[in-house]
Design a protein that fits this description.
heterodimer; A: alpha/beta; Rossmann fold; 2 domains; two-stranded antiparallel ribbon; 9 helices; 39% helix; B: alpha/beta; six-stranded mixed β-sheet; three-stranded mixed β-sheet; 12 helices; globular; nucleus (chain B); General transcription and DNA repair factor IIH (chain B)
């Protein structure tokens, strides 16, 4: 019945109908499909400690951040019953799957409460509990290893690959392949760029392009990250740098809640000035014209007789 | 006497095939005039051979239906998955060392447009299938080699025809391959003319880029104006690598072309095999060892190429004419040296000739230089103290039962594959995905 109506709308919109029927078709077809969201939370303790300092203009502690993030996750689940959600946490040195809506990894179901809605409570309690466990496991370290954001992005892509191309597993769980459309990855980042992660991030971007995944980035604290800007631009996502950090939930719901199919109608803010220039390998200057070794593709600012790599 | 002896010898030579071809009754009838003793000997030999195989060519014939077995429920699903997984794993056993590869490639695609291509032994015709696979090949090639250029030459009616100029834009190449009416096959192919045309179009290129010719050849003849071996020597001198994908049968000249220039030769057995050997030529070839007079241990000097990194003009900038098509456009890229606006990168600037690339294009080729170590299949569970219950990357639960299908080399019966660096277990699908698409291990994160 609905498909017949859609077909009629589509036929009328492609002929000479006014624009509003096209929009209506778009909205109705978007309402029919489920969407998948993978959230990657950057949880490096030093950065969060710096963010909570009151010397900042708008300090944001990790507790406030988590409560606003959980409200956003609940909003995503509430938008549509078939929406799926996966949350990864990027801790120093390792990345952990915190919550997955397709399988329950923990056996303890939270107690039923008359005032809370069970799916929301499940997400909230699982995410917070796992984060606490991981923070306790970190302990005291002299030198904190760098944040494993790249590992989390790769895992998110593997997970999306698994749900978009299911093969019948030996466990016998059949997943309907028509359920997932428009997978998105949302990265909430507080750490600065890591030069050693340039190549893995570029590889992740190209695989995201192949899987048609949109990568959105929300920079909560810290300097601008060029790699994530390029990631958002190359996958048609949006990169937002927060100026008012205490209004985080508003930014999240306005920019990142809508699935890709709705973004044709509901414009999300993007950043247009992307710096595509490369940095030379010898001095780390930004160069306009560089000399590239034909073998190892390293970029130099001055011509050298022999490549040093 | 002498004729009979010779007859005996003559019978000896072809008696083997006669026995199996005609059977014992026939042979007895034929051998009526010969001695009974020789009869018996030949019959015994024939019978013994019939036990192993009836024809000698059957020795290389694989009975693929024997490997497929039904499971208890009578379904073939498990066997099919097993075969597919084995095929995927076989591809991953390629060498993982970081070897020198030429990243900047120039390829000329030589298509056979002779009358032999209208043969229907591959559905719908060899010609249609070749066009379809050529289009897919071009898309995949530009995906893996964004800094390369492809030109297309056709062999038709005894001459070489230039179908497409050397271009770095995949849309241009696909456009000249899509005009099917212009490419109707007719006449005889000429290998020499086509290779000469390809060679002359690549003669002006610098030495640090690799020059390749890929010939898709469907005929068994070639009509050349001169000596093709002279052309072959000229190609070797110009360091051009020729690879041939033959659709009909192997010709000695095709094999010679590939061996002398260091290319790959393959004969397609069926449609799937045709696609496989065509796509084997997509990754960059390993650079040939260059003999240097600098003595052992001297690193051969790699040439540095000058490249420009553009600034991108967003949609909101005022419109102006572009340098490549003279179109009025708002968005584009500015060449850093001459400030001319070009529509798309990577390209050579039309005004100053500088090669313009954006850093993601260079980064796309990095994974060839830093490949991921292949994962080892977990074959035994001894000495395992702490086992991960789920795949480290996608959180798929591993099955605890052993797969009953016969395991070949490289396959794990538990479906677990371990990274040698971070010692995490991954499932078979993630294994293929990590090595084919992402090129970055999720556990190592490097």
């Amino acid at each position: 019945m609905i498909t017949a109506y859609l077909l009629w709308l589509y036929r009328s919109s492609t002929s000479h109908a006014p624009n509003w029927t096209k929009y209506l078709t778009c909205i109705i077809s978007a309402m029919e499909k489920a969407s998948h969201l993978s959230v990657i939370v950057d949880l490096s303790p030093t950065q969060w400690h710096l963010s909570a300092q009151t010397s900042n203009q708008y300090p944001l502690s990790i507790e406030t951040f988590l409560s606003q993030l959980l409200a956003f996750l609940n909003a995503h689940i509430a938008s549509k019953h078939e929406n799926s959600l996966v949350v990864f946490g990027a801790f120093p040195g390792k990345s952990v799957l915190l919550y997955s809506s397709t399988e329950l990894l923990s056996d303890d179901v939270p107690s039923l409460d008359a005032n809370s809605y069970l799916p929301f409570k499940l997400v909230d309690s699982t995410v917070v509990q796992r984060i606490m466990n991981e923070f306790d496991a970190i302990g005291e370290l002299d030198e904190e290893p760098s944040c494993a954001l790249v590992g989390a992005v790769t895992k998110a892509l593997c997970y999306i690959n698994r749900i978009t191309h299911p093969s019948s597993t030996t466990a016998g769980v059949a997943e309907d392949p028509s359920i997932v459309h428009d997978p998105r990855i949302l990265i909430l980042s507080v750490s600065p760029d890591l030069s050693s992660s340039y190549i893995p991030i570029m590889n992740a971007i190209f695989s995201a392009q192949k899987l048609k995944v949109t990568i959105d980035v929300c920079k909560v604290y810290g300097p601008d990250t060029v790699f994530l800007q390029q990631a958002a631009h190359l996958t048609n996502g949006s990169y937002i740098y927060l100026e008012r950090r205490d209004a985080l939930l508003q930014y999240l719901i306005m920019s990142f809640l809508s699935p890709t199919s709705i973004r044709k109608i509901l414009a999300v803010p993007k950043q247009d000035k992307i710096d595509f220039r490369a940095a030379c390998f010898c001095h780390k200057n930004i160069v306009d014209i560089g000399f590239v070794c034909s073998v190892c593709l390293s970029i130099f600012c001055q011509p050298l007789p022999v490549c040093s790599t | 006497m002498a004729p009979r002896n010779r007859d005996d010898n003559f019978m000896d030579v072809d008696s083997d095939s006669d026995i199996s071809l005609l059977g014992d009754a026939e042979h007895r009838g034929k051998g009526k005039g010969k001695g009974k003793a020789t009869d018996k000997r030949k019959k015994d030999k024939g019978k013994a051979k019939a036990k192993e195989q009836a024809y000698t060519w059957e020795a290389s014939y694989t009975r693929s239906w024997d490997t497929v077995q039904e499971d208890e429920a009578g379904s073939l699903q498990g066997a099919v998955e097993d075969l597919m997984a084995r095929g995927r794993r076989r591809r991953l056993l390629a060498p993982a060392a970081a070897i020198r590869r030429t990243i900047i490639r120039h390829l000329v695609l030589l298509l056979d447009l002779s009358a032999a291509m209208m043969d229907r032994d591959m559905r719908p015709t060899r010609f249609d299938l070749m066009l379809q696979y050529a289009r897919e090949f071009v898309v995949e090639w530009f995906d893996q080699n964004p800094l390369g250029q492809i030109g297309v030459v056709g062999m038709r009616a005894g001459i070489g025809e230039r179908i497409g100029e050397m271009s770095g834009n995949p849309q241009d190449v696909l456009k000249c391959l899509s005009e099917r009416t212009r490419l109707e096959p007719t006449g005889e192919p000429s290998l020499q003319n086509a290779i000469e045309m390809a060679r002359s179009s690549m003669s002006h290129l610098p030495t640090h880029s690799s020059r390749e010719i890929l010939i898709i050849f469907g005929s068994l003849t070639t009509c050349d104006p001169g000596n093709i071996h002279d052309t072959l020597d000229a190609c070797v001198k110009n360091k051009i690598r020729i690879s041939v994908v033959a659709l009909a049968a192997e010709m000695k000249i095709s094999r010679d072309l590939c061996d002398k220039t260091g290319g790959q030769f393959g004969v397609a057995m069926n449609e799937g095999h045709f696609k496989d050997i065509l796509f084997e030529l997509v990754p960059p070839p390993a650079q040939r060892a260059v003999a240097r007079a600098g003595g052992p241990g001297a690193n051969p000097a790699a040439d540095l190429m000058m490249m420009g990194f553009p600034t991108r003009l967003p949609d909101s900038s005022p419109p102006s004419l572009c340098a490549c098509h003279s179109d009025m456009k708002s968005e584009g890229f500015l060449c850093p040296r001459c400030m001319a606006k070009v529509c798309d990168v990577p390209t050579d600037c039309d005004i100053c000739g500088l090669m313009i690339v954006s850093s993601p294009h260079l980064a796309r080729s990095y994974h060839h230089l830093f490949p991921v170590k292949p994962y080892e299949a977990v074959t035994s569970m001894e000495g395992e103290s702490m086992l991960q219950a789920a795949c480290h990357a996608c959180a798929r639960i591993f099955s605890t039962s052993v797969s009953t299908a016969a395991t070949s080399e490289g396959m794990s019966p538990w479906g677990r594959y371990r990274c040698p660096d971070c010692h995490n277990d991954f499932c078979a699908e993630c294994d293929v995905f990590v090595h084919d698409v992402i090129h970055c291990c999720p556990g190592c994160g490097k």
